[in-house]
Amino acid sequence: MYYDKFTIQLATPSDEQDYLIILVGDEKGISQLLIDNDTKEINIAADWQHSSTFFNNAKQQLREYFNNERHTFELELNPTGTVFQRHAWQQLTKIPYGETRRYKDIAAGLGNPNASRAVGMANNKNPIPIIIPCHRVIGANKKLVGYAYGLELKQQLLSLEKKR
To answer: N or C: which end of the chain has fewer CB within 10 A?
Structure first.
């Protein structure tokens, strides 16, 4: 398993904020994207091997996204999760850039309109945020709810996408 760290800048209403992004994966694809913004504990596993070049394509695509030059990602992904979680994450990749969906919309897309809570739990366990765009999912009342890296970052990501 390889990992690499890099910093991106995201415009906020008052200035720009730096975020440290950590990519983790292997030849099968990216398995994790971690954001070091002091909302979650970040641990680099002892068996992960640092590579400054393994994720060059992913880093370039993420930089383009944060510069509002890319709206979709073309990367091999290898998230670990239950069958339900992987199906839910696949639904998230269908949400167009700059748009949002409610948890119940994702549940309906999975064929079970009553699975909103399960979709919310799957969202919370999404190991590759931004690329698998769980930030585009909002509550039934169309308000921002739940984001593993905090509602402030979720709002920043949605605002970035609205600029297109």
So the answer is: C
